[in-house]
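INFO batch 0412 | record 1 of 1 | parsing
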Amino acid sequence: MLRAIRFLVILGLLIAAALWLTDSPGSISAEWRGYRIETSAALLIAGVALIAVAAAVAYRGWLFLRRTPGSIASAWRERRRRRGYEALTRGMVAVAAGDPQEAQKHSKRAEVLLNEPPLTMLLSAQAAQLGGDEKAAEEFFKAMADRPETEFLGLRGLLSQALNRQDKDRALELARRAYRLRPASEWVATTLFDLQAQSGLWLDASVTNEELGRRRLVDRKTADRRKGVLAFEQARKDHADGDPAAEFKHLRQAHDMAPDLVPAAVRLAHLMTADGKGRRAAGILEKAWISGPHPEIAREYLNAKGVTDALGGVKAMEKLAKSNPEHAESHLALAQAALEAELWGEARTHLEAVLDAPDGGGYAGRALRLMAAVEDGEGANPGMARDWLMRAATAGPDKAWVCTTCGNAVATWAVTCSNCGTFDVYAWRTPPHAEPLAPQGLAWSGLPGDDDGAAGAVSGTARLPAPKDTGGPPETGG
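INFO prediction complete | emitting tokens
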């Protein structure tokens, strides 16, 4: 509507101008080189206007002729680029759909049509990986890593390949390079931390963990827990290097940052007891018993209390159990102490408390074996002892250190899972499937420099008389 009005206004102005010129024709004369020209003003203006229009048309025609080759080339390039992006899109869809042949076909087409290596190299690498050609994919990733705009993508691809090959040295090198490029990337920082931990680079892992916490890539609680675990591993290294002062310092740090870390609490208590600080050692173990009762804590508690007889062991276990009286581990510790003191009735009472829980709460096997030891110790009904052992043979698996990521169960706590390599994922719980566990002690046992007394205390050798072979809970270690 507005365009129509504007056209009518312009047309009206032109008509008005023409009428005005008609009503006022005037006259114009000019002399040049012996020629004389006389005409009306209206005709002169019309001639000038006609010449201007002709000049404009000629200029437009000249521009058209001049620009036509470039326009044709530009249209061809745009069509080629559009087809290239179409091939790139279809290639990405093929990768997502898991079709290696289709992905490779479109990646080659996109590479021919597009002059944008960063995009086509990424698709080509993914298509090669999908087709199982890791060598070709590696070449593409290396080419990407050499270009500033795609360096991080190339490094990530190479790092993933190194991790799949279990080439930890190469993976660690690539992770460090990627971390320098993108320190705020959670994936890169976490991968670097895991690789440092798996390689035993505790100081490097501590620095990376601090950066993760500072950048809020992990919460503060997780960062503190990791700091404690790393300090414990550093203490183990100090022990192997024969540096007791540094070992004790790192153990204190580990216990402060991760008070529920059983191996750290047990080892710290053991060193304090050896230094004549049994009361402080017992206090540490009592606090550890509150957060997570464990057989190793009970065994080390006897050492901290200086127990030398069976009745003393019962009293010590009663004091420890007060920290967490309703826990099944407290009943088992009291039952074990009562069994060794030949207090059959008291031992049976605590074992029944465990067995009355649904499925024994993961402690049925140990409780049934101890119940068999009670019957065998009393000697009144040998057949009952055999019955208890038969039930124990078919009971569920005892608690063990279980990886919360992959379910791998081990007897000895470790900083990383031996199956999936994840950092600090072992928890004391019932394994997802039955798996025989060899009696072992804490991860500390067997380190160079351990004397027999220290190894015995940490690996679970109590100072009380051992129960008969038919009883006694299995030492699942810590």
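INFO post-check: DSSP finds 20 helices and five strands in the chain.
INFO record closed
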